[in-house]
Amino acid sequence: MTPSELYIKKRLEERRLAGTYRTLKPVNDLVDFCSNDYLGFACSVVLKNNIDNEIKSSGIISNGSTGSRLLTGNSNYVESLEQYIAGLHNSEAGLIFNSGYDANLGLFSSLPQRGDTIITDELIHASIIDGARLGYANRCTFKHNDLQSLEDKLKQAKGNCYVAIESVYSMDGDSPPIKEILALTEKYDARLIVDEAHAVGLFGFGLIVEPDQKRVFARIVTFGKALGCHGAIVLGSNLLKEYLVNFARSFIYTTAAAHHQNASIKMAYQLLQQSQHEIEALRNNIISFQQKVNNGGACSLISSDSAIQCMVLGSNEKAKAYAAHLQNAGLDVRPILSPTVAAGTERIRICLHSFNTGEEITLLTNGINKLINAE
């Protein structure tokens, strides 16, 4: 083997020995308690038909965009779509990226400069961490949802300061004290950036609502969760949009999304506005799950009002054992292992959906309770 191949083999073996080796798994026929398809849009026949009709009515015949937005990949349709979405979120402007990862990478790598400061919650998404690493700004974290820890970091910040949080955290499912964080950022003349990926859907257009929408510097909304399609948008001022078009490398140097993706996004937003029944069904499933599961002791749920419900188990082995037991019972529940989460906080992450039946919720909670009682 070459030195590079030996290095690759060594790193993979380290992962295997640590019990953190990752593999791709095929689609299964288990009951879905794993996906981010909170409202069932990804499998919605109604949404599919609406997309087909929208493509036909638009008169655009294209299998691909043919280039980046700055070359041949732009269109009146996508520009109108950006303004439409911005209006729904009460934002001045928006810029669509090919994914939530691309959006965060582009924003955080291009905006903060050398001498500036990025302060993030310690549980912030990996895409924000990676974006910040690509820039030259000073970086630090504050304790999860801890206002005093955030203020301590704000007092030390230099240059332009950007504070990044999620309105619903992807691995815990909980939400921060948004109004208090916003007040702190304004007190110290910092700009607040909020990733709304896991809030849109269950909480309408997100947890940032009037009058705070105009006070938040930027919001990131992804379309691959409750909206059931793909892509993301950065919401903010016209000035911010103009800046990102000129400096966000993950926007500039990539082929634009095809028309089908843009039509899917538009139709998903329209369907969301007609989906109060699905939203209520999801809320009821969250309440039902929390009422039926044994919560407390060594295995406890993280406090969450969102579709993401996590039971911390404390080790990779235990998380994998719980997940395997539930999978054997026909339930698609996945373990979340370190290093994806911090060592000692390994867990099973349960995603609830509008389409999960009462019987499926009961089967899930009975399976979890049996494991807890056997401890």
Number of strands: 13
Gyration radius over CA: 21 Å
Unreliable spans: none
Number of helices: 13
Percent helix, as a range, is 40-55%
Main sheet makeup: 7 strands, mixed
What structural category characterises the helix and strand content?
alpha/beta
Strand content: 5-15%
Q: What general outline do the C-alpha atoms trace? A: globular
Descriptive key words:
seven-stranded mixed sheet; four-stranded antiparallel sheet; alpha/beta; globular; 375 residues; single chain
Q: How would you describe this structure to a colleague?
A:
- With 375 residues, the protein is an alpha/beta fold.
- It contains 13 helices and 13 strands.
- It has a 7-stranded mixed β-sheet with strand order 2-8-7-6-5-3-4, with helices on both faces. A 4-stranded antiparallel β-sheet has the order 9-10-13-12, with helices on one face.
- Helix 2 (45-58) packs across helix 10 (259-272), helix 3 (76-88) runs parallel beside helix 10 (259-272) and helix 4 (100-110) runs parallel beside helix 5.
- The longest helix is centred in the C-terminal third of the chain and has 17 residues, at 276-292.
